[in-house]
Amino acid sequence: MKHIIAFAGSNSTTSINKQLATYASGLVEGAKAEVLDLNDFDVPLFSTDLEKSMGGQPENAHKLFNKIKEADGMVVSLAEHNGAYASVFKNLFDWISRIEAKTFLGKPMLLMATSPGARGGQSVLTIAQDRFPRHEADIVGVFSLPQFGNNFSEGQITNKELNDQLLVEVDKFQNAI
């Protein structure tokens, strides 16, 4: 059985992106999904001075990187803060990229975002689709869920057309892992 990890690029305890990542990872057949919480990987604010004084990267950055290494694929749903990554995700990404520049190790990724607004995190998805392949992400599927509050309830997407779009992307991911 394949092992996938799923996480939101957010540290909110009520993260809508974590809800979406959890739902999508549960749709992947033939895989065991491990849903991660970025709060379990707390690291100090990245700086090269701190990295030098610490003699390397923090243990929690290594822990998350090891989760990526052990997984057959990743389901990632990014929170969008002011049109970009949430600072918690960007900070972890910065630390992990110092461990290994090819951060995502060529693993298949289902990349997603959601937001309360009509664009569904499109800005952060555009940034990630440009940036992540430079860190060896194999983005095999992309999905945006607009207006989370209107389209997601009781742990699932309630809009049939949007859910069907997600199922197409999940299928691509499933075939890639």
Molecular structure report:
There is one protein chain. This protein has a single domain (2-176), classed as Flavodoxin domain (Rossmann fold, 3-Layer(aba) Sandwich), CATH 3.40.50.360. A 5-stranded parallel β-sheet has the order 2-1-3-6-7, sandwiched between helices. A two-stranded antiparallel ribbon has the order 4-5. The chain contains 7 helices and 9 strands; from the N terminus they run βαβααβββαβαβαββα. Helix content is 42%, strand content 24%. By secondary structure, the protein is of the alpha/beta class.
Keywords:
177 residues, alpha/beta, Rossmann fold, two-stranded antiparallel sheet
CATH class: Alpha Beta
Overall tally of structural domains: 1
Beta-strand residue percentage: 15-25%
The backbone outline, from C-alpha atoms, is globular
CATH 4th-level superfamily: Flavodoxin domain
Return the structural class.
alpha/beta
Helix content: 40-55%
Number of strands: 9
Order of helices and strands: EHEHHEEEHEHEHEEH
Number of helices: 7
Overall average pLDDT: 98
Strand count, sense and closure of the main sheet?
5 strands, parallel
Q: What gyration radius follows from the Cα positions, in whole Å?
A: 16 Å
- By CATH, the topology is Rossmann fold
CATH architecture: 3-Layer(aba) Sandwich
> Span from first to last CA?
10 Å
Instruction: Trace the largest sheet across and list its strands.
Output: 2-1-3-6-7
List the uncertain runs: none
Protein name: NAD(P)H-dependent oxidoreductase
Organism: Corallibacter vietnamensis
Domain NADPH-dependent FMN reductase-like: 4-126
Pfam families: FMN_red
